[in-house]
């Protein structure tokens, strides 16, 4: 299914294949020989999304851009089942395995592997030919790649990256943070009320 969102419609190369149950919404460009499988969602929430050539987006993957963080995915990239890419730049020949999570402002260098259920945090830069092991966490710039049992070190780096401030423009110490966050985010998402499904 394709949707016009905020006045922008998807542009899909005639040599790309998009499953009928995939959702493509807004300012999305899909290049030649790309394959978007069943249940995948590619949604441009105010920022553009560009998929290069020969990109495979597998079942139930999510790719989301924001006004502050567009998405660019290079050539010959595989986005695994249930993976999530939000507002990130992905280089050529990258492998994002099943269940990986890539957060806003991340930059992933060419020929990098982010393995099953690994996380690349907000504003993190992975150099070319990096590997994030299964279930591990990449955080910061310069990057630290840590196992999940080193939570205190991950949190120390993550706190400095300021997720609520960077993504939502809110101070983490605001007493009613979740009230403000959900109301602000909800107003942005309400713009989908005017989406138009395309033939």
Automatic annotation (TrEMBL):
It comes from the Bacteria. This is Gamma carbonic anhydrase family protein. It comes from Microbacterium alkaliflavum.
